[in-house]
Amino acid sequence: MSASPLVGWDDVAAVAPEGLAVLDRVGRFVRLNPAGAAMCGAREESDLLGTPSPFALAEGDGTCRTGLLEERSDERVAHWVPASGARREFAYRARGLPDDPKFTVVSFRDVTAAWHRQRRIAAIAQTSIALASEGSLGSTLDAVARQIVQTDGLAGVQILILDGTGRELRLMGSAGLRHWDAFLDRLLECRDRGARLCMVDTLRERKPIVVPHRWAQIRADPAWEPLHAYLGELNWDSFVSVPLMARGRPEGVLNAYFAPGQEIGGRTLEFLAAMAEQAALAVDYATLLQREREGARRNERQRLARDLHDSIVQQVFSIGMQANAAGVLGARGGPLPAEAVRRFADEVGALSQTVLADLRAMVHELRPSSSTRLGLEDAVTALVKSTENRTGLGIRLLCGVDLDAVEPDLAEDMYRIVAEAIHNVVKHAEATTVTIRLGVRDHTLTASVRDDGRGLAESGGRSAAPEGEGDRTPGTVWDHGYGLTTMRERAERWGGTMRIRSGKSGTAVRVVIPLPVRVPELRPTDPEDPRSTLAAVPLPETPDPARSGS
């Protein structure tokens, strides 16, 4: 019985499920099987013959990383950009031909989708780790946005959260887009011009909304003109808005801007939903933690204020009364020298008044919430008068309009920021005058504290941030780091920024906090539920796709 002939290259290569290639000594394709040609985006093997391959011939080049779900760590990795289509990732092995060292045989497989899934798993895991860190909510949501952009190669991501009332949105995290304090104000302007915000629909319907080719629609819509230049800085095409859900209620939205050519499939939406869930957990945790801290601070302030009032203040007041009595006795010309008694009364009385003023200032600072309920301007005015009486420092306060409209929690944080800035001026700057400006303009709350002191670099305990750096600049030290850190965290809590500039003529601290965007009531419409208010918001039954985006 005769032996069967060996199967030739063409027969094996034609049915091989993985790519097979023969390369010359400089790495160009000499032979390529149909599976390999298809992976490289070519119709025929001949289309790639003689062209450079992506595979490294030297040992150690392109070493393959071991993925979460990958065991074949002896493979190497190569990236291939076809003439048309997205970039591909190949895992491969290369072996030289023993009989002809001019040629190298390569077996390779397309791992683009598999490794993309691994990167998504790693992104979710790293985000979970970030949630356990001690960073602010703003820095945590920035990290979530960066993970999404880096993992899926998106053009940009924004994360907006609802406030405690569920009626106002704040931009708290972003990646890929330039930070712009006026973004929310321009977004409101677009809405007022007739542009429809699909993220509001996302919050109400509590499901992702996908808008293909959204940038072309926005670019052609005059209602979006205030944001044309800003959104045009980004190389993007389609748009997805995903709700942040926690405890069955919406906490905000995750807006994803897709680069041209990127597909929005089911796995992509699953990944965005998973990252949105991580962001929602961060928001929910921060909300609970903030409530706990506020309750503890409120209780502690009330306890300290009560203790100070019931003990020290009353005692000092008694000292003043005794001093007055001694003055009366001295005035009667009794056995004690009258002049000595008067001098004693004047000294003790002056001392008691000074101590009493200081203690009242302490009580005022420990209980700012009672003042900020009356308005941010009144609270800061009282603080300025108290500081002038205690220190002799000349303080000029300039307040703009609409400060009374600032919500109490934001007013208290801004009050605290201004109070800490004044405290550092008194403690370190050796200044003679301070100018404080407060106001609301372009839907943004701003505050600045400028002194004529020595400047940060020359003042003990303070060092300057590099000129031109601000907005969440880490590592800046002010009052041994604690004061600046607290001020920055208070600003970031509301999606704001803080900038410090210093020179020989003094130091300026500027805080910018965008005010939130008001959204319609988000409860589902129920005609028999008196609490439902969505019926009062006129919406067309069939949304215009050209006006249902970002």
What characteristics describe this protein?
550 residues, 19% strand, elongated, 6-stranded antiparallel sheet, alpha+beta, single chain, 5-stranded antiparallel sheet, disordered C terminus
Radius of gyration: 34 Å
Give the integer mean of the pLDDT values. Answer: 77
Instruction: Classify the secondary structure makeup into a structural class.
Output: alpha+beta
Uncertain stretches of 5 or more adjacent residues: 60-72, 458-480, 524-549
Tell me how many strands there are.
Answer: 16
Number of helices: 14
Please state roughly what percent of the residues sit in beta strands, choosing from under 5%, 5-15%, 15-25%, 25-35%, 35-45% or over 45%: 15-25%
What is the string of helix and strand elements?
A: HEEHEEEHHEEHHEHHEEHHHHEHEEHEEE
Plain-language structure description:
The protein has helices spanning 9-15, 34-39, 112-131, 137-152, 183-192, 198-205, 214-220, 225-232, 266-331, 338-366, 368-372, 376-391, 408-429, 482-493; strands spanning 19-23, 29-32, 76-80, 88-96, 104-110, 156-162, 168-175, 209-211, 239-246, 249-257, 394-399, 433-441, 444-451, 497-503, 506-514, 517-518. It is of the alpha+beta class. Strand 9 (239-246) and strand 10 form a beta hairpin. It is elongated. The protein starts with 8 loop residues before the first helix and ends in a 32-residue tail after the last strand. Mean pLDDT is 77; it is low at 60-72, 458-480 and 524-549.
